[in-house]
Design brief:
Number of domains: 2
Helix content: 25-40%
Number of helices: 10
Strand order of the largest sheet: 9-8-7-12-15-17-16
CATH topology of the largest domain: Rossmann fold
CATH superfamily of the largest domain: Vaccinia Virus protein VP39
Radius of gyration: 21 Å
Structural class: alpha/beta
């Protein structure tokens, strides 16, 4: 039966994660991926624990009722007490398509607090956007930024809900600036900051990243470009940061520029480098599976050389063990560059 085969896959994944889960619980983390279908023989299916929430999502084929029940029954026995929510995102643009009964919809729309290395974040299984506000594969990035941040300034670009910025502040960063184009994302980021006893006050800038980077880099953002008036944007002073974290979406277009992490990552990296102090650290992220780590690394090196910056050291930050990769090449690539 399909349900039995699926249950066997869930059991194998759960057993493989036991050492990691024990370590995460010891460091006060209660959010992690339980099943990563792309590398665990069920492409398109992901199952995440976010505190008291079990979030089941499909990105290719919808789950049948019997399989959904089999998943819920397995985790009810393995991790008792979790509230199970299923989001079918198999339709175009990954929008959640399946209705929920009123009681489950209310549970899905309830903000919940989770913990990661003692830092508190708010998540929500369903809201006006698509994702639950904290990407679990980026735990490796948040962990590393906490190791790097003490006493340093951080520019967090494409900040989403500001998890990187909050983690840095919690770890003793001297100054943190979060930049995102969506006011709704920054609102969640402010709530994340509020839920933690942070020693500094974070700055949240509602802006297109290109406009912000050009100003921080000292290039400036004209109000009129080629005869066309640009949308309103915050006026920012020229300054460089000890740490810059660059985590762009795969593709986006705005009046200020085009984000394309496969074909033109250099357009972003060039500006991000110009916002990074000499001797500082730039952390670049790329989650496009179709570009290899080697090809992307070459793009980064050529971009730095073109503007006269030297990459003194490069380190790959790998996703943690709840995101296994069958070939050692996870889609999410994180490169720490000493520049």
């Amino acid at each position: 039966m399909q349900e039995q085969a699926l249950t066997e896959l869930l059991q194998a994944a759960f057993a493989a994660r036991q050492p990691l889960i024990a370590r995460l619980h010891e460091e006060d983390t209660n959010a992690y991926r339980l099943f990563n279908g792309s590398s665990e023989q069920r492409p398109g299916l992901t199952i995440d624990r976010y505190g008291d929430l079990l979030l089941i999502q499909t990105f290719r084929n919808s789950l049948g009722n019997a399989e959904r029940v089999a998943i819920e029954n397995f985790y009810a026995a393995a991790l008792p007490g979790l509230i199970s929510i299923y989001n079918d995102r198999s339709r175009p643009n990954s929008r959640v398509a399946n209705p929920l009964p009123a009681d489950l919809l209310s549970a899905a729309q309830k903000p919940r607090e989770i913990r990661e290395t003692g830092v508190r974040y708010v998540i929500q299984a369903r809201h006006a956007g698509q994702d639950p506000w904290l990407f679990l594969d980026m735990r490796a990035g948040r962990r590393r930024i906490m190791q790097e941040a003490s006493g340093k300034s951080l520019l967090n670009l494409f900040a989403y809900t500001c998890g990187i910025g909050v983690a840095a502040a919690r770890a003793g960063a001297a100054h943190v600036v979060n930049v995102d184009f969506a006011e709704s994302n920054l609102k969640v980021g402010k709530e994340n900051a509020r839920r933690n006893d942070l020693p500094i006050r974070l700055r949240f800038i509602h802006s297109d990243a290109f406009a912000a980077m050009r100003q921080f880099a000292g290039i400036g953002q004209p109000a009129v470009v080629r005869g066309k008036r640009m949308p309103a944007f915050p006026r920012l002073d020229h300054r460089a940061f000890d740490l810059v974290f660059l985590d762009p979406p795969p593709y986006a277009r705005s009046p200020f520029g085009v984000v394309d992490i496969v074909n033109d990552y250099a357009a972003l990296m060039k500006l991000a480098l110009q916002c990074t102090t000499e001797g500082g650290t730039l952390i670049c992220c790329n989650n496009a599976a179709e570009i290899s780590r080697e090809v992307w690394a070459d793009q980064l090196a050529r971009c730095a050389a073109k503007i006269g910056r030297t990459i003194r050291e490069r380190e790959w930050i790998m996703p943690e063990d709840d995101f296994p990769s069958h070939d050692g090449r996870p889609p999410l690539k994180i490169a720490l560059l000493r520049v």
